[in-house]
Write a structure and sequence with these properties.
CATH architecture of the largest domain in chain A: 3-Layer(aba) Sandwich
Structural class of chain A: alpha/beta
Number of strands of chain A: 23
Largest interface: A-B, 160 and 160 residues
Oligomer: homodimer
Number of domains of chain A: 3
Number of helices of chain A: 26
């Protein structure tokens, strides 16, 4: 093999042959565990899967090739991917043997892009597909429908979408196979997630760091992930990095990640079957031994978990060359392998010969059913990977045991009179959830649980840590090999874990600094799409909602500055399906409790809850809070003086800091312009603002007008970027009277008041805004008040600038009425 | 050291001492290159830096401790971080020696969170800070101001913000130090980026995969990155993963990543100084040798680049214990190390003693200037890392050499009559840009350049690849050790490279599938914030804009389905500062050329350009395209029949597929309801929709009304989620007549027409929508047309469902007038 590229590139590798995916198997594990008969059967089963994969890509008719293949049998548009199918199916089938031999509880995660044919063909072969979709029966008619639906309008896609039995990982966006797999095996002590990782996928950041998940896996209480890195060699149009580093580097990398890597490399099927059989078996035995040792000794050490590197040709078992170009073992095998079958009779013949080379007539009965001697290779019942109940986790889900959150409420004798830290109050209740749900609830976060004032939960469950310990970790480290809080400084990884944990039937919560949640925008998008699709898949039982608690919010980034100011995650979430997404902005601790209780009980949603972690004014006692949160938006009578009449002005807010400032503005106006009738409205459930036809929580026009009126100016102080409120209310009568203030990318190292002034969300600016919109009501009476407010604002800002602190009058403000 | 944690956790490590950050230096490189005098001076220089760091955290007065420290001298609010300052400054200072000795061209990248005091103190010590900010002079008054401004309202933050001389990497959001550093050294053959990587940061996905950037670094044409992984040991409240795996694993990991790791571990200053001096020197010599060998031989092999693991205590040189808890070497040293100095006189005294232990009186003159024998340790002029011109890249930027894009235009004889692939046309011009700007323009993308139909550029510059080669890579692989296209399947890494490349004074473009650009939402947010801040920093010269070309768009995900449908990146971008962000939706090839020409000439923007890669109708000849794009939005007279009069209806569009459908709807209406006066408006520059006070591109009310009227229904077919148009136009007169259609999370495996129908963005639905909003104009005349359209829509959808293809009448549609 010529290893010297053009223009002076040269190889580091001393043994280029070691990078070839072709040839007789080369493997770490030795031995030939398969008898000739077993090998033959497994090979034929593999052929059956490959035949089905090609059928899915090409055929709309003639599924068993009973007649010569004609253009009419081919789908009009050829869509789908062949590249990683063989390697994935090969791995799947070999694991079936071990599931039967060792009575394993296992499921399959398909990480490589577009590998759905591999898993779907196996689900069909083991009978699950037909059980789930009776019209895709195991006969000729069923097979024809099974082929036609693939990548066909109204049919199924080329990832392991929610329609795929046995899937909890769609894989449209790459990078999350490992974190999803670990998420599913935490607290599932006998479960193995056989996880194929694409070598394209492996280049992504989220995947690259997720290998470290093994430092959070407890061999006593958790199951195991068996990763199979599929060195398929190519992405869409490029070689993959990990297939093109030296063998030494590749091995070192996985030792570095804390695994024991096993290699299985080559293309020759008989030897590859033996190598894979031996390797998977050694890995399974190793996992079982690790479990046994840990469980018998009670010592949760971190072992070197096994992992496999499978180097096989991309498009394995395709023709090596077509039209003078490599197909098998090259990037040209990525998508549809033969692209001209509709126009080139020779290619059509080539396809037919290729499909016939698998000998379908020897694999399936005349009626199209897999022959019994092959069918019996698959496990039965729930032992079939595509039937593992964990992959339809809603079925297994038990409701959380929740103590009454009312018992943890803060006493609020007077509205807005005392400061308290909402997070700490919530944390006390959260601690009981951790304590009472020790095998199906975890808290996830990127090193911020303590900083987010939720550290109380460590009383009930410490942070999981299977890295090395130093003696002084005992001093408040809250680390233990078995725990309930999962922290790694990778938003991607903790989100992936949580998704896997939820989809396998458990409950959880992610807590994060608000500004950095954008890091996982795309993951949350994909999870929302998964849930949305699940509504269309009848057999999918609802799972617990994805609860994302955002704190350390934009308005209190006192020493982090501009980079830490971004409340725009809400805009990303609001674009997702209204069936799925919910946004809550509880203004105080009791509302936070009420909202979180609702979220923990809910199903199939993405709940985003925004609440700051600092000391804040407390507004509602618990019964008022529950009533208010149940309505989602309402008038705060105690802060209003319109007494049921038409107000002159509606002052509104959503968010804790925003509510305080809006209330303070209301107080200023009421103090200095007592003749004004002001109605105070607070919004907890943001989607209440939308018209009822647009979101299930949306208010009717009448409801909306009963809060905001349809003809009075509204000053709305909003937590996030102001346009989100406008986009939700643009259809409302009176929308032109809605004046929203929120964050507008104006920040610096600021005191809270300074930042608010910069963005016009402080009490003075809000009151001035109100006066400016009440000119007709106030006439000249407003001018002197306006001037006074302007002056106070200026003086407050200079005070902060000079002293580094906000004025006492601002810091110590309470609701004065 | 007791390595056994509670509850059965046990260590994998045979040598726990190796994980301790304390003690005499342990290092890979041996030797004592420093004379006693040199060591003493370097140590004092280091002390000066540490003194300044503490001053920044605490003091607003008494900067030289001329009088006993009093509460009055302390800032009222203590903000800032101590944790990583010492390790970073230590590394910085030791590199100064080598810059002088070897005449190096180098700059510093500060990856760990909140390490600004380290770099700012060094910038101050080497005089750059005072040159850039004359009021922060090198004297007592300057030092007092220098201290006070830090983490103080109106001052500077605790990251290496744009205000920091020598910084191109702010680091507020963690994970991008390595990719930024590599971006800066590509095409800078003599530049070394000394890059500190935080061990917290190292846990992020983006950082974990960015180590692989070395497979894209050409030792002939590019400079070098010298990464220093700072095993500081702790994050905010947790140990770091990489500090708690075995030494063997850590070493293997970096061998796996393709580096030669050098370890420097310990806390004892004299031996650590010698170890760091020896190690950095060995690394520098190694880099110079690699360069020399490659450049003399002309062979661009991938060497094992050196990297350093610096294990030192978090908060190094702080008191080890305070109040019965470890401070130095523990997470308690993360932020302000002594938190009670304002309330506890003993802590105040402790701080004073600590500061005095650095002996400021021996480091600074009475007037507050660093004494000459220490000052001369720093390099001079632009050799000072904080003065390296590359870190104010705008200064170095040369405009791109651009051929006239008009010469690459497609001939459009009749509007909307022919299909052509816009990307391929653009690619021909792009190829000349690559060819004519061989040292300051690169194209970046995650394995999609070919798929995005931009592969023509390989004629001018292949893909950079310093991984291993196989012989058949020659068959269309387009790979070479020296090239102009940078592809790795990590959106994070390629975006990070591009940012580094731009900030160091060059030009570039990212191309990506539209759906997966959300992966880098947060990176683009941070870059936009960086640029926004730069406007306030006078000495920052504008850099080339960040150009993001999104293709493979939502409307043509024919075989990728739901996961690949997300046009919401525009919402994220639209939240950023209007000074920075621009969004363009060119409807055809000639508009794309015109828009890209503008973007490549622009400065300091984030330009997002959305255009699909399939064959699409071509609407405008090049002169019309230029005129249209210059206006940003305009009436297409050839598609309108209102002839300057008041129209009955405005049909509007933004985006290529959306424009085709809106035009087809217009044609249907004109054919079947010829009495209707329809005005067709197309929007290229999305921010034109906003009011002029809200965005520099915003239209005045008069301009807006001259296009959209203020009293006629508007049917707006939009590329992305419809609410973005509403949020931009909610203030416009007549906004209640604006009916926007766009993507609404309704997708599946769909033909283009099916997907459009599902979302109401197809020609039939748009025409029906128009009729429904023209009831008063049309009376009953519209009903039969409506019925016909509904019927056509239904039949088209069933046709697609049955055949897998859209009807010919849809696929072959041309503008009929």
């Amino acid at each position: 093999m010529d290893a010297i590229p053009a223009k002076g590139g040269e190889s580091l590798s001393k043994d280029m042959e070691s990078l070839s995916p072709f040839g007789t198997a080369r493997s770490t594990a030795q031995g030939k565990p398969l008898s000739n008969d077993e090998l033959d059967k497994i090979n034929r089963y593999f052929h059956a899967s490959m035949y089905l994969c090609l059928g899915m890509l090409y055929l709309k008719n003639n599924p068993l090739l009973e007649e010569p293949l004609k253009k009419d049998h081919i789908k009009a548009r050829l869509l789908g991917h062949w590249g990683s199918d063989a390697g994935q199916s090969f791995t799947y089938i070999h694991f079936n043997r071990l599931i039967k031999k060792y009575d394993l509880d296992a499921f399959f995660v398909s990480g490589p892009g577009h590998g759905a044919p591999a898993v779907i063909s196996n689900s069909y072969l083991e009978g699950v597909y037909s059980e789930v979709y009776p019209n895709m029966s195991q006969d000729k008619e069923g097979m024809q429908r099974f082929f036609k639906q693939f990548s066909f309008p109204g049919g199924i896609g080329s990832h392991a979408t929610p329609e795929t039995p046995g899937s909890i990982h769609e894989g449209g966006e790459l990078g999350y196979s490992i974190s999803h797999a670990y998420g599913a095996v935490y607290d599932n002590p006998n479960l193995i997630a056989l996880t194929m990782v694409g070598d394209g996928e492996a280049e992504t950041g989220p995947l690259a760091t997720s290998w470290h998940s093994n430092k959070f896996l407890n061999p006593i209480d958790d199951g195991a992930v068996l990763p199979v890195l599929h060195l398929n060699g190519y992405k869409i149009n490029n070689p993959t990095l990990l297939a093109r580093i030296t063998h030494e580097e590749l091995e070192a990398m996985f030792v570095g990640y804390g695994y024991k890597p096993y290699f299985v490399e080559g293309s020759d099927l008989p030897s590859m079957h033996q190598a894979m059989a031996a390797t998977l078996e050694e890995c399974v035995v190793s996992i079982k031994n690790i479990w046994k040792e840990a469980r018998e000794s009670g010592k949760a050490i971190r072992p070197r978990w096994p992992m496999i590197v499978l180097r096989s040709p991309k498009g394995w078992t395709a023709p090596r060359d077509v039209d003078g170009h490599h197909l098998e073992g090259f990037w040209r095998a990525h998508q549809i392998p033969l692209t001209k079958v509709l126009t080139d009779p020779e290619q059509l013949k080539l396809l037919e010969n290729w499909m016939r080379s698998y000998k379908p007539e020897e694999l399936f009965t005349k009626d199209g059913k897999l022959i019994p001697e092959l069918a019996e290779l698959a496990p039965t019942g729930n032992a079939r990977m595509s039937a593992n109940p964990v992959t339809n986790g809603g079925q297994l889900r038990k409701p959380l045991k929740l103590k009454d959150f009312r018992d943890f409420a803060i006493k609020v004798n007077k509205n807005g009179a005392e400061l308290a830290p909402s997070m700490n109050i919530f944390a006390e209740w959260l601690t009981t959830i951790v304590a009472n749900n020790t095998d199906n609830f975890r808290i996830f976060g990127p090193d911020e649980t303590e900083s987010n004032k939720l550290g109380a939960v460590y009383k009930a469950g410490p942070k999981v840590w299977l890295g090395e310990y130093l003696d002084y970790d005992k001093d408040g480290g809250n680390l233990a090999p078995a725990g309930r809080v999962m922290e790694m400084l990778s938003e991607h990884t903790v989100e992936g874990w949580l998704e896997g944990y939820l989809l396998s039937g458990r409950h959880g919560m992610l807590n994060s600094y608000e500004p950095f949640i954008h890091i996982i925008d795309s993951m949350v998008n994909q999870h929302a799409k998964w849930l949305e699709k699940c509504y269309e898949v009848e057999w999918r039982t609802p799972v617990a909602s994805l609860n994302i608690l955002l704190t350390s919010t934009v308005w209190r980034q006192d020493h982090n500055g501009f980079t830490h100011q971004d409340p725009g995650f809400l805009d990303v979430v609001a674009n997702k399906s209204p069936e799925i997404v919910r946004i809550y902005l509880p203004p105080d601790a009791n509302c936070l409790l009420s909202v979180m209780d609702h979220c923990f009980r809910s199903e199939n949603y993405v709940n985003v809850i925004v609440a700051d972690k600092q000391n804040h004014l407390q507004f509602l006692d618990i019964e008022d809070a529950v009533a208010h949160c149940t309505k989602g938006a309402g008038i705060w009578k105690w802060a209003s003086n319109d007494e049921g009449a038409e107000p002159d002005l509606v002052m509104a807010s959503a968010g804790d800091v925003s509510t305080q400032e809006a209330l303070a503005a209301t107080a200023l106006l009421r103090e200095h312009l007592p003749e004004l009738k002001i109605r105070f409205v607070n919004v907890v459930d943001l989607f209440r603002l939308m018209p009822n036809g647009y979101h299930p929580h949306g208010m009717t026009a009448t409801e909306y007008a009963s809060l905001f009126t349809d003809n009075r100016p509204v000053v709305f102080n909003f937590h996030s970027y102001p346009w989100l409120v406008h986009r939700m209310t643009y259809k409302r009568v009176g929308q032109h009277l809605m004046h929203v203030r929120g964050y507008k990318e104006k920040g610096n190292i600021d005191t809270p008041l300074e930042l608010a002034i910069r963005n016009g969300t402080d009490r003075y600016s809000l009151a001035i805004l109100a006066i400016d919109n009440l000119k007709d009501t106030l006439g000249n009476k407003g001018s002197s008040v306006r001037e006074m407010l302007l002056d106070t604002r200026t003086r407050s800002a200079s005070y902060a600038f000079e002293t580094g602190e906000d004025p006492k009058a601002f810091v110590d403000w309470k609701w004065p009425f």
